[in-house]
Model the fold of this input.
Amino acid sequence: MGLGPGRQACWYVRYRILRCRNTPVAVCVYCGRPFCRDHGRFLPNEATVCTHPACVRRLTEIEEFKVYKAAAQDRNLTGACGHASCSAPVWGQCSRCRNLFCEDHLSEVYEVYYQLGRRHRRYFSVCPYCRRFYKT
Ligand SMILES: [Zn+2]
Ligand SMILES: [Zn+2]
Ligand SMILES: [Zn+2]
Ligand SMILES: [Zn+2]
Done:
């Protein structure tokens, strides 16, 4: 986490003009901006994230995903679909969170890729939670 000599300042700007004058202590792992002790935080896993709304949102998303994944995993251990309060037997795997779901709770999405100048679609199954991360 090397901070350049002197030229770096905390990313935080109050009322669009007043730049924070505190000395930066670390760099945000998401946006790469330096932050002072007031405008960012140190996570237990040694990652450093600033308090910019976009970075806070991203962090929350990742935390939520972890919680969701663990809960679905527990359900899978009992042989049930990973979706909360669904007791249908598992049918397939979500290709994003890797948990197992019943047929109703898996939907097909695709990604476009190009090979030898031709457009192809790659299909895969995702659970309702992971579905929102795909446009298709
Ligand atoms: Zn950031
Ligand atoms: Zn600051
Ligand atoms: Zn999933
Ligand atoms: Zn289900």
Remarks:
- Helices lie at 53-77, 128-131.
